[in-house]
Amino acid sequence: MIILILYTIMNEYFGYFWKTPYFNIDGFNASQFVYLYLIGGYMKRFVSREWIDRRRYGFILTYIVCSALYGGMVFLDGVHRVPHWDPWKYNNPLLIASSVSFFLFFASFHFKSKVVNTIALSTFPIFLIQNYINGLYKFVGNLFESCCLYIGENNVLIKSVFLIILTLSFSICVIIFDQLRILLFRPIWKVYDVVDGKVKRCFSK
What we know:
By secondary structure, this protein is mainly α. It is about 80% helix and about 0% strand. It is built from nine helices and no strands. Helix 7 (about 125-130) crosses helix 9 and helix 8 (about 135-150) packs antiparallel against helix 9. The longest helix has about 50 residues, at about 155-205. The protein is globular. It starts with a helix and ends with a helix.
């Protein structure tokens, strides 16, 4: 709990609000992913299923309120630039609060799906490819800009649908390639587990 609080202070107060150097100033990095893992680890260890189930509608209400405030922030940012208010950063506290609330809302429903678990394994590779392969990132961005020029500035609905299709296509391609990586590396990890077990047994004697 103390680690999560300290990380939140560094991530949000020093990073997001004050843009302090050497801190997480925008959320487009591995530090933000670690922060989200800390939040998830805390919830898994200290938050009970019963507690989540009792607050299902509170979570969706929190999500709606935070999303409305975030929408207002985006609108104000378009009208007048407010210092320390940057809605487009991943470590925006309203964005994190709405995301966590939305996750907890769905966590209150009891279902199991191999498809969901398979997709979840590839979320980190999607994050890495999105942020650290500049050539691919620029290619997708240039493709979207070129299509927007072709579609026209006034066709907001068509541009939104195209952006959704482009995002889904990118995610699906990464998931497919990552599943191939998992299949290729599975025999290697099995050998590693066997060797690791033998080494541990030798040193435990």
